[in-house]
From TrEMBL, chains A, B, C, D:
Catalyzed reaction equations: GTP + 3 H2O = 2-amino-5-formylamino-6-(5-phospho-D-ribosylamino)pyrimidin-4(3H)-one + 2 phosphate + 2 H(+)
GO function terms (MF aspect): GTP binding; GTP cyclohydrolase IIa activity
Region (Disordered): 107-129
Name the UniProt record assigns to this protein: GTP cyclohydrolase III
Protein origin, superkingdom: Archaea
Gene it is expressed from: gch3
PANTHER family: GTP CYCLOHYDROLASE III (PTHR42202)
Record's function text: Catalyzes the formation of 2-amino-5-formylamino-6-ribofuranosylamino-4(3H)-pyrimidinone ribonucleotide monophosphate and inorganic phosphate from GTP. Also has an independent pyrophosphate phosphohydrolase activity.
Key words of the record: GTP-binding, Hydrolase, Nucleotide-binding
Keyword Hydrolase: yes
Species for this entry: Haloplanus rubicundus
InterPro entries: GTP_CycHdrlase_3, Nucleotide_cyclase, Rev_trsase/Diguanyl_cyclase
EC number: 3.5.4.29
Pfam families for the chain: GCH_III
C-alpha cells in the first residue's frame, strides 16, 4: 500500500521580494526560479525523489527516502547560494492529497507565506518504516503528440491542447482519487497516485478524451521511492508504445499488467 | 501599432533522446530543461526580450531587438554547452498568434521536430524597422492569492485554482484577440498582446471570473521590446494594487489609463 | 590515523572535443567547466565531501563517505546533462598523494585521457571501514590580505602574491608530507593532509614566508569526512583570527592545540 | 595599437559574508563562486569579451565592446539572482597592467573591498573610439601535456607542472611587458597582451622552459574585442600544432607570421 511522503518547498516571502524596492527584471526572476527548481530536482533526484516546479514559488517534491537531516541540508545549502530562503513542510499519508494537506498545514500553522518574519520553517515527520511500494508514479503522455500537434499547429495551439489535457487530468485524479498530477514538459504528465487499479487509470484516460479530446496513455510503477517507481513507470510506458496499449502497470517486482 | 517578433526555440529530436538508449533519469531531464530555459531567459532578457518555458522542449520568446546574429550566437552557445541542440524559427506580425504561426511554419517546413537529421535550423527574418510600441505586454495576477489560496488550501488545490484561471485566460485571449498568455510562476500570467483597449482587458477578466471564479487584475505596457513593455506593465500592475483597480494601461510614454 | 579517499574526475577526451570541428568559443568552455565543477561540488559536498577544480578537465575530490553507487550516479547524471562524460578513479591511502596516485593509475590503466574509446571508466574501491579521523583538512589564508593586497595593489599584482604563496605551499606540502593543496578563491588554500603535528604546519608557514614573503595562518581539523574536518578547520582558523596565532589544531573531538 | 579595456569585478564584502553568522559550507561557497563566474563568462562572452576567474572574489574581464549600460545591467542582474552584489571598475590603456591599475583604483578609491557600506560601485569610462586591433590575446598551451603529464603522473603532480609553468609565465609577462596571464583549465593559459613581437613571445617561452622546464607554445591574435582576438589566437595555436612551431601570430586580417 502506498505511503507517500511529500514536501512542500515554499520560498519565504517571495512575492514582496520580487517588487522590492521596485519590480525586478522579469527574466532575472524566471532565471532564479528555474535554477532553484533545477537545484531542487538535483538534490531530491539524487536521493531517489522527484520534484515538480508547480508554481515555482511553491514546489512539491516526493521525498520518500529523505530524512530530516536531508531537509535541513537542502534548506541550509539553498540559503547559502540564493538571495531567498525556503521553508519546508513534510506530510505523509497513503493518499497523496492528504499528505500534501499535512505538509501545507505545517507551514500555514507557522505563519503566512508572505510573513516577513517566518523564515526557514521545517515542519513534519518523514516516513519511519519504509516499504517497497510506498510510492506509486503514473507517467502519462499524449498519443502522437508530435505528429498531431507539434508538426501541425503553431506552438501555442499545440500547447493549448496539452494544457487542456493536463487541466482535465489534474482535476479528475485530484477529485476522484487524491492523486496529484504535474506537467513535466513536452507532452508528459507525471502523477503521484494512491493505489489504483488498471480500470481506474482507464477511466481517467477516457474522461480526458471525452471532455477535451486529448488522447493519453499511461505507464504506472511502484517502488520504495519516486525514482524507482518512476523508472518502472517509464518502462511500462515504453511497453504501451510497443504494444499500442493505453495502460501498463509495471510494479516493484517488475510484473506488468496491461489493458 | 504592435509588431511582435516571436522566436520558437525547439530542442532538436528531444523526445527520442530522452529514452535513448533507455529512459533517462527524470530529475536529470527536469534539470536540463529548466537550466536551458534559464540560460535562454538570461540571453534574451539581457537583450530586452522575454522568454517563456511553455513546454520546455518548445519555448517561446519575444525577441524584438534581437537580430539574426543574436539568434546564431544563441544557437552556437547552446550547442557548445548542452547535450542537445536547438532550432530557431522567427516570425513577425502585429498579431502575436500570427507571428508564432510564421515562426512555427519555418521549422515545420524544414522537417519534423523528431527528425534526427534536422538540426540547428534557423528560419525567419527579424523586424527591420523597430518602433516604440512594437511590443505590448499584459501582466496579470490573481487578487489576494496568498490570503485566499496559499495560506488556506493545500498547495495542489491552490495550484488548481491558478491553473483554471490560466487555462481560461489563455484560451480566451488566443481565440478573441490572438494574444498569447504564459504562466510565469506564483499567481502571475504574462500575455503578449496585440493592440487592445481597456474594455477588452476588462472583458477578459470578466470572462475568467465568470467561467472559473478566479479574480484577476492586469497592468499593461508597451515598448520597443518586451522588457520595456513588461516593466511598464509591472508598474501599471502596482497601480492596480494601490488604487484597487482591475485594469491599468501604462504605455511607452508612461501615461496611465485605468478602469 | 588518516585514511583519505580521493576521486580523480577526468572529462573524457576533452581536449580534442574543444577544437572539434573547430575551436569552440572560449567563454562557452569556461562556462561548461565551471558549471560542471559547481555540480560536482554540490553532489560531493552534500555527501560530506570536498571537490577542487584543479585543472577543470581533471578535478580532485575528497570522497570519504561516498560509495560506488554514489560514483555511478554522479557519472550517469553528468552524462545526462552535459555534452561530455567523465571517468572516475578512486584511491585510498593514509597519505593523500599516494591515494591520488592510485586513483590516477586506475584511469591511466584504462587508456589515455585523450583516447576517444575510453569513456565513463569507474575504477578503484572506496573505504570499507570508516573511522572518525579518516580525513584531515588544513584551511590556510593570508594574513591581512585585504589590507595589504586587495585594497593596495592592482588586482593582478594581488593575485600574483597569492599565487606565489600558493605555489610555494603546494610544492612544500606535496614534497615534505604528501599533502595536496588547492587554491579555493580569495586568499584561501585548502589542503588535504596526512597526520601532521603543529610544528609541521609551522614549518610550512615559515617556508612560505621565507621563500616568497607571503604570510599565512592555518586552522586544521579532522573528521570522518571532508566537510566535518573542513568545518573544524574553519572554526580553528577563526580561533587564529581571534588569538593572533598562526596554527590552530581543532580536531574530531573539538579539542584545540595552538601555537 | 592595443587599447585594452579591463573590468575588475569585485564581490562586495565577500570575506566577512562567508563567515557570518558562522563559517558557511565550503562547497556552497565553491558553487556560488563558480556559478557567478559562469554567468559572468556568458554575459561578457556573448558581447565579445573574455572573463577570467582569477581569485573568484575578484575577477578580471576584457570588456572592449561593453559600454556603461552593459555594466549596469550586469550589476543589476547579478544582484537580482545572488545573495551577494558586485562592484565594477573599468580601466582603459594600451598596456593591460596599466588598464587594470586604473580599474582597480576606481574601486579602491570608493572604499575597502570589505567595507560593508560600499556596494555596487561602478567606476571608470569605457573605450569611446574602438578600432580593429584594440585587443591582443595570446593563447598558450603546454606541448604534449597529455602524453608527458596527464597519462604519466598522478593528477596533482601534473597540476604542479602546469602551475609552475603558469607561475613563471604570469610573472614574466607582467614584469617585462605588462601582459596579464590567466590559467583557463587543462594546460591552457590565456594572456591579454600589449603589442609584442614574435621575438618577445619566443623569449617568454624560453624563460619558462629555462626556469621551470615547462615547454609552451603560443598562438596570438588581435581584434576589436577579446573574442575575435582569441579566436584568431586559437587558430594560430592550431597552426603551431600542425607546423610544430612555437609561436604563431595570426591577427586582425588573418595574416600569420611564425617562428
Amino acid at each position: 500500500m502506498t505511503n507517500t511522503q511529500l514536501t512542500l518547498v515554499q520560498i519565504d516571502n517571495y512575492g514582496p521580494w520580487t517588487v522590492t524596492p521596485e519590480p525586478r527584471r522579469e527574466m532575472d526572476l524566471q532565471t532564479l526560479q528555474s535554477r532553484l527548481f533545477a537545484d531542487l530536482a538535483q538534490f531530491v533526484g539524487h536521493r531517489g525523489g522527484y520534484a515538480f516546479f508547480t508554481r515555482f514559488d511553491n514546489m512539491v517534491a516526493v521525498t520518500n527516502g529523505l530524512d530530516l537531516d536531508d531537509h535541513r541540508l537542502l534548506q541550509e545549502s539553498t540559503g547559502n547560494r540564493y538571495p531567498v530562503t525556503v521553508s519546508l513542510g513534510i506530510g505523509v499519508d497513503p493518499n497523496p492529497a492528504v499528505a500534501l494537506e499535512r505538509a501545507t498545514e505545517g507551514l500555514q500553522g507557522a505563519g503566512s507565506a508572505q510573513d516577513g518574519d517566518r523564515r526557514e520553517v521545517l515542519s513534519g515527520t518523514p516516513v519511519t518504516e519504509p516499504s517497497g511500494d510506498d510510492v506509486s508514479i503514473a507517467h502519462f503522455d499524449v498519443n502522437d503528440a508530435t505528429e498531431k500537434y507539434t508538426d501541425q499547429l503553431n506552438e501555442f495551439d499545440s500547447f493549448i491542447q496539452i494544457e487542456q489535457g493536463y487541466a482535465a487530468l489534474m482535476r479528475y485524479l485530484r477529485e476522484e482519487h487524491g492523486g496529484l498530477s504535474f506537467f513535466v514538459g513536452g507532452d508528459n504528465i507525471i502523477a503521484v497516485t494512491p493505489d489504483m487499479a488498471v480500470a481506474d487509470y482507464r477511466a481517467a484516460i477516457d474522461h480526458v478524451e471525452e471532455t477535451v479530446g486529448v488522447d493519453l496513455k499511461v505507464g504506472v510503477g511502484q517502488g520504495e521511492h519516486a525514482h524507482a517507481a518512476g523508472m518502472a513507470a517509464k518502462h511500462a510506458l515504453e511497453e504501451c508504445r510497443h504494444h499500442g496499449t493505453a495502460v501498463e502497470l509495471g510494479g516493484a517486482a517488475g510484473e506488468v499488467e496491461s489493458e
